[in-house]
Amino acid sequence: MTNPLYDALFAPLKTRHSDLLILPDARALSGVDFHQMLASLGAGLIAAGVAKGDRVAVQVAKSPKALALYAATVAVGAIFLPLNTAYTAAELDYFLRDATPKLFFGDQPGGLDLHSFGADPNDFVPIDCDCADLAALLYTSGTTGRSKGAMLSHGNLLSNAKVLVDAWRFTDKDVLLHALPIFHTHGLFVASNVSLLSGGAMIFMPSFDAKSVLAHLGQANVLMGVPTFYTRLLDLPDFDAAATAHMRLFTSGSAPLLAETHTQFADRTGHRILERYGMTETN
């Protein structure tokens, strides 16, 4: 059997005993730990009747298990639909009616409880897919009307990850400080997929907090962020050349970075921020 995203990003984790996700409290999940979580969720999805091509909607707080649900969904050939945790009930109702998911996981009432969901991981077998099969459905605002679901295939996501690993020279020695949300393309695909494909590790933070990021920066050598990450870090007097001396790469996306922020960052740290551009429709 073949499943492009599972084979490239997740299958190697079955034998990876080194840290994959390092949590802020210093606990860590190895690749083996994460794959067990993936397999348990995958078996649970299949037991719940999820079939190839079904959509699985998710509106939950960022956590290793939430990331594993993305992995499990694509592994069983279903389509992952992440939803902003800040959406109101009315907004959520639109997305669920439009996408018609087979299952909905939510921290709010009405969704399955992610933390009680799973099955025997020994029952898990990935489902055959090809590069043209859809892996994700992400809603994005257009120039007219309501948000529309952008359809992303296994081939879309995998080709983008390969391009970025090459362009940004990622290796299994890299440690990404991951403070982005995982309900949009930046945090879920650009950050996570690149790290997974290269065999690197992630310091997996539940959200962005400038002081916490600075405190954990010494364990990382890559930071991917949005402009507000960098303006808030620059507000901290201890964020300087010494604090960033070990860093290899800073990237910014999702919104334009002001020229003055580029200049202030370079003057303060001696590093330049690599500004990237992407669209949800194309990852």
Structure notes:
This protein has nine helices and twelve strands. The protein is an alpha/beta fold and 283 residues long. The mean pLDDT is 95. Helix 3 links the parallel strand 3 (55-59) and strand 4 (79-82). It has helices spanning 4-10, 31-47, 64-75, 89-99, 154-167, 185-198, 210-216, 227-234, 259-269; strands spanning 19-22, 28-30, 55-59, 79-82, 103-106, 134-140, 148-153, 175-178, 201-204, 222-225, 249-252, 274-275. The longest helix has 17 residues, at 31-47. The chain starts with a helix and ends in an 8-residue tail after the last strand. It is globular, with a radius of gyration of 19 Å. It has a seven-stranded mixed β-sheet with strand order 2-1-9-8-10-11-12. The protein has a three-stranded parallel β-sheet with strand order 4-3-5, covered by helices on one side. Strands 6-7 form a two-stranded antiparallel sheet. Helix 5 (154-167) crosses helix 6.
Residue fraction in strands: 15-25%
Radius of gyration: 19 Å
Overall pLDDT score? 95
**Can you list the strand order of the major beta sheet?**
2-1-9-8-10-11-12
Number of helices: 9
Q: Pairing-aware structural class of the strands and helices?
A: alpha/beta
* Residue runs with pLDDT of under 50 for 5 or more positions: none
Report the end-to-end length measured between terminal Cα atoms. Answer: 26 Å
Number of strands: 12
Major β-sheet profile: 7 strands, mixed
Helicity, as a percent range: 25-40%
Outline type = globular
Spell the H/E element sequence: HEEHEHEHEEEHEHEHEHEHE
Layout of helices and strands, plus pairs?
Blueprint: H1 4-10, E1 19-22, E2 28-30, H2 31-47, E3 55-59, H3 64-75, E4 79-82, H4 89-99, E5 103-106, E6 134-140, E7 148-153, H5 154-167, E8 175-178, H6 185-198, E9 201-204, H7 210-216, E10 222-225, H8 227-234, E11 249-252, H9 259-269, E12 274-275
Parallel strand pairs: 1-9, 3-4, 3-5, 8-9, 8-10, 10-11, 11-12
Antiparallel strand pairs: 1-2, 6-7
Helix pairs in contact: 2-3, 5-6, 8-9
